Amino acid sequence: MGPVMTKKLILLLGIALLLLSEPVRADNNCSCPTVTADGRGDSSCSAAEASGQCTIDFNIFPPETEQRAFDLMKSVSKVPLSLPPAGESSVDAMYTASSKGQTVEVLLVYLAIAAADQAQAHPGTIDTQALGEIAALVSDVGKDAINQAFSATAAKEFSAVKAVPPEDTKSIVILNEQGLTVSPGCVEVNRNGLWVMFKANWSPAALAPGCGAK
């Protein structure tokens, strides 16, 4: 982790400590950027928007859903992938992935959950070339920021505090570049008409529609 990323994490953890006395939130807000559809739940979510369709899934994601996302991502990209352990919540799976140095590999599967479901329910609505570009962007440009955003330290600290108000979420963004936005516990990517997001339920951006770039 570079010095800039380290300083950013220290700042974000400082924000978490300031919020420590506040009650922990229960809802996770997931919304598509242009299609009028949103969802709320107390678990992590995967979301996708393309071709005028919006799909939002909350976990625990069934093993067959994770396998479908893995297969789709593998078919459009050559970046390394890793299936989450079957039956684990995404929070536990990402914690395990972080300890094994596989954060990005597992995250890519979660990013594709809703996209794979939409591809099955509405064939032809997911641009697979765009999905491949998203995988490459996340694995390259987003790697360091994502490792930081889903580290065990970040998960522990932000799980203990309430989410920041939606209007303040810009302050927690770690990376916002080339259509890729990363904040603690949250990644969203917009590429050539395809938008995907994964947001952990402990993310400080839980109350915002996305990860906090807007």
Outline the structure in words.
This protein has about 210 residues and is an alpha+beta fold. Helices cover about 40% and strands about 20% of the residues. The radius of gyration is 16 Å and the shape is globular. The chain has a six-stranded antiparallel beta sheet with strand order 4-3-8-7-6-5, with helices on one face. The protein has a two-stranded antiparallel sheet with strand order 1-2. α2 (about 65-75) crosses α4 and α3 (about 90-100) runs antiparallel to α4 (about 105-110).
Strand order of the largest sheet: 4-3-8-7-6-5
Overall 3D form: globular
Model regions low in confidence, pLDDT < 50 over at least 5 residues: 6-26
What fraction of the residues are assigned to beta strands by DSSP? 15-25%
Count of discrete alpha- or pi-helical segments spanning 4 or more residues: 8
